[in-house]
Amino acid sequence: MFLDADGILMPSTGQPFTHVLKPAGTSRFEALPAIEWQSMELGRAAGFIVPAIALVAMPDGMPHALVVERFDIRTGLEDMRRLALEDMTSILGVRAEDKYTGTMERIAAALRPLSTDPDADLLMVLRRALFAWLIADGDMHLKNMAVLKIAEPGGRDFGSVWMAPLYDAVTTRVFPNLQTDRMALKIGGKDERLKRADFRRFAATAGIPAAAADTSMDELAAALARGLDALVLPPPLTDGSAGAERAAQMREIVREPLASFE
């Protein structure tokens, strides 16, 4: 989609592709935009870089859709940088259809020599894994994690390579038949019943100092708890609709692992 200067959202045919429109699903996935909005806003509260998002009305009585601003494009005609987004299937040499294979350890090992700030990015991978666990996101697969590469004007190489902002985060356990959904990618050989010790072991394997890992995990959990309590809900999440009901269920789902994470 293209969002013009007057705030009109239209198909990007003949216009720059600035935004992604994500309509509601079917077969009891009608609440997906609402759940993704809430997941992303909790990610923002937890300290992640998150693109601008909004729930927008749709015609013919359809549930609200989610619109997401792209972060992998230049900001204007005067911006001469070159940007490239590469997801983890590409980085690990995995076929797109095998996006649920792999482990967080493999991601960390591949990221260290690639990132221009590996210490910060490895800590980000730890935080992403913990956030996915705390919000019950069973769909953080290899295509939902990526690096953003930036070449400055005149540069022949990407001078900046770092973990991309949070995208496509969604609590999956709130949907039918996914109440026991597990982590999409294993960490320490596990995809369920994760404890702080599992994330500590991952940190040690990735070369993250124990003190830095503990501090980062504590800060994320505390910020997520505060964000959950302070979340300001838009009308689509308070109007008694299916989306609003699922969003309320999601908030209770998130509170459970937060209360037990020690």
UniProtKB/TrEMBL annotation:
GO terms for cellular component: cytosol. One of its GO terms (molecular function) is protein serine/threonine kinase activity. It comes from the Bacteria. Residues 14-225 form the HipA-like C-terminal domain. InterPro entries: HipA-like_C, HipA_Ser/Thr_kinase. The keyword Transferase applies. The keyword rRNA-binding does not apply. Keywords: Kinase, Transferase. Belongs to the HipA Ser/Thr kinase family. This is HipA domain protein. It comes from Rhizobium mesoamericanum STM3625.
